[in-house]
Amino acid sequence: MLDELEDQAREFYAAGEYAHALAEFSVLREVRGRREGPYSVAYLRALHDCVRCMRPLALWQDTDQLCRELHGKYVRTHGRGEADTVDVAKHWAWALLQLESINGAVDLYIRTADALWASDQSAARRLLGAAAVHTRRVVDPLSGLALTHTTELADSLRDLHVRLRNDAGATPSISFDGAAPE
Fold this sequence. Notes:
By secondary structure, this protein is mostly helical. Helix content is about 70%, strand content about 0%. The protein has eight helices and no strands. It is elongated, with a radius of gyration of 17 Å. The two termini are about 30 Å apart. The model has no long low-confidence stretch (mean pLDDT about 85).
């Protein structure tokens, strides 16, 4: 029965019926959480699917809450640089931007970029680009963050700030890959 419910939810999602998909995935999340526990693969998958449905519905407060839970669990079980963790970080940062929690979004972009630096510098730089767009409003984006690649991130952010200043009239996009969830 749960597999059928999940198939139906995926069909709704594929058809762009995000409200219906969210309702189905939410039921799956509740049932899976009770039966299998809050760290089971099936529960985490349903929770992640709920998050994916919320973005097109602009449910930013709910996205913030679910991403806080999911990101924490993924960090503990998978690590910060794993694909699912990175995807949730993007969703969460995007929701935080919509909620005007700029510092929270910038911190998340930077911490995730730090986690990716050694394995995927291209993706890390895209995340830093998203942070750079917003760091004009943040005094010192690296202050207070325990990072592994502090020097490299600081150099990259400084380079990005110079590029943003030198491209007079350029309007940096914050919906490019790395800033917005896919």
